[in-house]
Design goal:
- There is one protein chain.
- By secondary structure, the protein is mainly beta.
- It has no helices and 29 strands.
- The strands form eight sheets. The protein has a four-stranded antiparallel beta sheet with strand order 4-5-6-7, with no helix packed on it.
- The protein starts with a strand and ends with a strand.
Length: 333
């Protein structure tokens, strides 16, 4: 979870709260009057108050201080996993920049008749808009097709988007996962705003699942299930480097796999002969898998020094789609 904090000199800092809710990583922005845009996993997009200022803050696993993965001129942008999506040099194109590899890795021709003023990304879905009154589409990168959706301030989720009719105060859900957009009313919001409106405070969507939340006239939070199938379980980003000096009880190997939705998982570690020496299991309430291995076997004995093969098998907690299997190596000793 990330938020902004302003110090005594008026400078904003992006703060990321750790797993224990007490460890806080800090990345100064050198700016003021900005806002946090999107973010997933270790990366947070910050739009500065200085005209044209934009940066991506980076909070690696276990860090007590953040860093800046990218400092750039502000445009429409979205972070999903380790990719930053921004308008390309040709009208209608959107480019993916890999924040780890430090290079452009994909270009998508969305067919937009403008340089998008807004971009949002969730899984294989790319949302673009030419402004509040202009056209808007969702581009399905998996099927290579554009899906026309209603214009207006909207928030993208997995297979659908939500917007508010500011005249009738209807909360409208547009389901486009089949390739054709259909819109229905999921709630009617209070006539009197509790804040400035939009999707900040008044309503919100869960980009990693199927829920829509809104504020009632009694200032209670109501939850509506979207009823839209979620995408298959997939890895968005991972930090699996071996623990320096080898894992120990005090400093275990703590890999992180950032997935696109919650899962139940099983991690096995095998020696050079293929024998499984340790099995770890768990369930994520958020989208990240975070086990810890102290270089011991299942019986509690320390393993010999060497290279060990890990295999992560994750099952989607929503029961939608197949299991995800990932593999790699780490070291002990």
């Amino acid at each position: 979870m990330a938020h902004l904090w302003t110090d005594a000199q008026g400078e904003e800092h992006v703060l990321a709260v750790g797993l224990d809710a007490t460890t806080i990583a800090d990345e100064p922005t050198g700016d003021a009057g900005g806002r946090i845009g999107t973010g997933t996993g270790r990366y947070v997009l910050y739009n500065g108050g200085t005209p044209g200022s934009q940066r991506v803050a980076d909070f690696p696993r276990g860090a007590t201080a953040g860093g800046t993965a990218l400092d750039r001129t502000r445009t429409a942008a979205a972070v999903w996993g380790q990719r930053l999506w921004t308008p390309g040099g040709t009208q209608g194109t959107v480019v993916a920049y890999d924040l780890k590899a430090k290079k452009n890795v994909a270009t998508v021709d969305t067919g937009a008749p403008c340089t998008p003023s807004e971009i949002q990304a969730v899984n294989a879905w790319l949302y673009w808009s030419c402004g509040s009154a202009g056209p808007a589409d969702v581009y399905d990168r998996a099927a290579n097709r554009a899906i026309t959706v209603p214009s207006g301030q909207a928030r993208l989720a997995d297979g659908y988007l939500v917007r508010e009719n500011r005249t009738t105060h209807e909360l409208l859900l547009t389901d486009f996962h089949t390739g054709t957009a259909t819109t229905r009313t999921v709630a009617v919001l209070p006539t009197a705003d509790q804040n400035t409106g939009g999707s900040t405070g008044r309503w919100a969507v869960d980009r990693f699942g199927g829920n829509v939340a809104y504020l009632t006239d009694r200032r209670q939070v109501a939850i509506v299930t979207a009823g839209v199938p979620t995408s298959a379980l997939a890895q968005m980003e991972a930090q699996t480097d071996p623990q320096p000096g080898g894992p120990t009880t005090a400093n275990p190997w703590r890999p992180v796999w950032q997935l696109n939705k919650p899962s139940t998982w099983r991690l096995t570690l095998s020696n050079a002969s293929g024998t499984v020496v340790r099995t770890l299991t768990g369930a994520s309430t958020a989208a990240a898998v975070r086990p810890a291995w102290d270089a011991r076997t299942d019986s509690g004995v320390f393993v010999p020094s060497g290279t060990y093969t890990w295999k992560l098998t994750a099952e989607p907690r929503d029961g939608q789609g197949p299991a995800l299997a990932l593999t790699g190596t780490t070291t002990a000793g």
